[in-house]
Structures are given as C-alpha cells and as structure tokens.
Design brief:
The chain has 397 residues and is mainly beta. Helices cover 11% and strands 40% of the residues. Strands 5-13-11-7-8 form a 5-stranded mixed β-sheet, with no helix packed on it. It has a 5-stranded mixed β-sheet with strand order 15-24-22-18-19, with no helix packed on it. The termini are far apart.
C-alpha cells in the first residue's frame, strides 16, 4: 500500500488528477495495524481506496483500510480455479504488464574507452522491483571475441520500482592491434522475476560495435652501421637491403611498396649507378619489419660518391614514414696515369708526341701536368738548345 501511495504521489502523470487505489486481498494482513495505518496515510493524501476481498475475507480489516464498508467488495463464493482466472484477468487489465527494452538497438564505443554501458528502460513505473539478467555474448565467430575484445559476462541486476532507467557496464579490451575489422557483440536480457512483472519490449537485444582506434605507424629501420636511417655501401657491394618497421601488430597483412629513385637534382643515376625499381613487400600481421633489396651497379668510372633515395607507399590507414632514407654509394675506382710506351724519339727540328693513358674512365675533365727533365743519365740535352717546353698540361675529357 505504501509503495503504491509513493508511486501515485511521485508520478508526474498523477498531478492534479483523482487518485484511485485498488487493493486485492483476503483481508488477513500479516501486520494488521501496519496495513490499516498505510490505508489511513493514503486516504490522508486524497487517495481513494477500493478493497476487493478474495477467498475467505475478514471484512472489518478492509473497512478500516478503505475507511468505509461501501468501498469493500466481496467475492466469497468463487471456486479456486475461477478465482485464479479472475486474479490473472484483473492483474492483466487493471495493471498492464510493464515492457522492458534496451534504450538503443545499436551502441558504438571506441576500443580505448575500457568499458561500455548498455541501458534498459521501462515503459511505465512499477510498484515492485524487477529482477533481470543481462548477458554480453559473441555474435559471430568472426566478430568480437571474448576475452580478446570484451568480457562475455552475465550480470544480475535489480530494476528498482521507482526507477525507469538502469544501465549495465561491460569491459572492453584495448588490444593495441591495428587495422582490425569492425567488431560486434550482443547484449540481451532475461526477466528472472515472475513473468507477470514484465515482458521484453520492442528492443530485446542491443548490438555493441567496437571501433578500432589503433593507428599503425611505419618508420625506416635504424642502420646499425651508421646509427641513422641512411645506408653507405661500396660500389662493388652488389646490392643494399633497406628495412621498414611498424609500431603495432596488425589484424591482417598489408602491402608496402619500396621505391628507389634519383634525388632532385640527380646524383646517382639509374640505371648507370643503381636499379631504380618498385618492390612490393607483404608486411605480415605479426611481424614488425619488412625489407627490400636493391641492385647497385659496379661501373669502371672513377667518380665522386653518389646517393639515391628510398621512398615508401602504404595503405591509407597506415601512417607512412616522415623521412626517407638515403643510400650513398662509395666509389671504388682509383685511377692511375701511365705513358703508352717507355721511350719516344723524334727528328731534330720536329716534334715528339708523348701519349698518356688512364687506367679507368673519369666522370669529369681531369688535367695532368707533364714535366720534362734534362738530368737523365747519359744524356746532355739542354732546354732551349735541343728542345722546348718543360711543363705541359694535358686534359682528359
């Protein structure tokens, strides 16, 4: 009686309207004085009480609860079976069964939230508390998995009579795995109280979508020989291997393309110095390193050290490196100059042509200075008397 009184007094719909209470009882309360006091309190709040006596009824108690024998109805002659039918019918018609539903059919949550709340609501107030079981479970084998993605659990809750909304919390696992598919699991509930207390409403199940918020970032591997991301190789090394790292495990493999290309402005040239190429490498889900090997051309030209660049392309949901590594090729040619023959001769009054030869080709003009000495043992040629031109500059192009 007191619960019903509180509900009538506190319900927004019951303001400024007549308030009626129907009491179905056998008139034999366990605590008679409490029942009578509760009836008096309700009537003092302008609530009209009508008592319907069932089975063998003690009428005087009902008279005191309602305040008048005119508000006591007796049904003493019904059989038990008929009486139960009437009770069920009156319960259904006079007190419609409350419907309980999830407030949202779909709930979305970021993986790093740690928890997710699913909420239930009643379509009308209740006089009594309602006991529920709320369960989170896997939806499909390919969706969210417990305990890897969430904690599958069954939680027993009490839906208080004076409360129309209640929420249940389930744990979400932040697994630090990038590039996951959208993952789902289901939440459903079961009423464990008497079935007459409530039934599932229009939304008996809620689907929780876990949004992956892990972003994988790629960076060139630090070369232990240089302590940087750059590489230094001898021209005769034949090839160079460049590696890329990722900071997270991924749910699936993905393709990364290594691109060897000339710098701007050109330094090392392709195909003279290296093979400009695009190499696709599969970055395995559980691996944190992928590598590609590029060919270095060993030419016979004496040249300065040269460099080329390695860049990368990755899928849109993968962060590419912010800096590209450089590969420097160390030239291994050491050119030497020699005469084409040991001795030369010429007629007086003429000229002598002396020829020089380089051991390797040069990639730039190079000048060589020839000096002529008259101190050769056994000869007494004197400059200006017998020949001219002590210094001569020869340019190799």
């Amino acid at each position: 009686i007191r619960q019903a009184t509180d509900q009538l007094l506190n319900s927004p719909q019951a303001r400024n309207v007549s308030k009626l209470m129907y009491l179905f009882t056998d008139g034999q309360p366990t605590r008679r004085n409490n029942a009578v006091s509760a009836g008096v309190e309700a009537r003092n709040e302008n609530i009209t009480i009508t008592a319907v006596g069932i089975a063998i009824t003690v009428q005087d108690a009902l008279n005191m609860i309602t305040g008048s024998s005119d508000r006591v109805l007796l049904v003493e002659t019904f059989s038990d079976e008929l009486l139960n039918d009437i009770i069920d019918d009156l319960t259904t018609q006079a007190c419609p069964t409350v419907e309980i539903s999830f407030t949202q059919a779909d709930v979305r949550v970021n993986e790093d939230n740690g928890t997710v709340f699913v909420c239930l609501e009643k379509d009308r107030p209740t006089v009594l508390d309602i006991e529920l079981q709320v369960t989170a479970r896997e939806q499909n084998p390919s969706d969210a998995i417990s305990p890897g993605d969430f904690d599958a659990d069954t939680i027993n809750i009490t839906f208080p009579s004076g409360q129309n909304r209640i929420c249940v919390e389930f744990n979400i696992t932040d697994d630090l795995i990038a590039r996951e598919f959208t993952e789902l699991f289901e939440a459903e509930f079961r009423i464990t109280s008497d079935s007459r207390f409530g039934v599932p409403g229009q939304t008996p199940m809620s689907t929780v979508t876990i949004l992956d918020d892990d972003e994988v970032t790629t960076t060139p591997m630090i070369n232990p020989d240089t302590g940087t991301i750059n590489y230094v190789v001898n021209e005769n090394a034949g090839d160079v291997t460049v590696c890329l790292m990722k900071d997270l495990v991924t749910a699936e493999d993905f393709i990364v393309t290594f691109i060897a290309r000339e710098k701007t402005p050109p330094d090392a040239l392709s195909p003279e110095d290296f093979t400009a190429d695009q190499i696709q490498v599969t970055f395995l889900a559980n691996e944190n390193m992928a590598c590609a090997t590029f060919t270095i051309i060993d030419d016979t030209i004496d040249e300065v050290d040269e460099s080329f660049e390695i860049s990368f392309t990755v899928p849109p949901d993968v962060t590419p490196p912010s800096t590209n590594p450089m590969v420097t090729i160390i030239d291994d040619e050491s050119p030497s100059v020699s005469f084409t023959q040991q001795t030369y001769s010429g007629e007086e009054g003429g000229v002598v042509e002396v020829c020089l030869m380089l051991s390797t080709q040069l990639d730039m003009e190079t000048s060589v200075t020839l000096s002529i000495s008259n101190s050769v043992t056994g000869y007494d040629d004197a400059e200006n008397d017998d020949y001219s031109g002590v210094l001569t500059v020869v340019t190799f192009v």
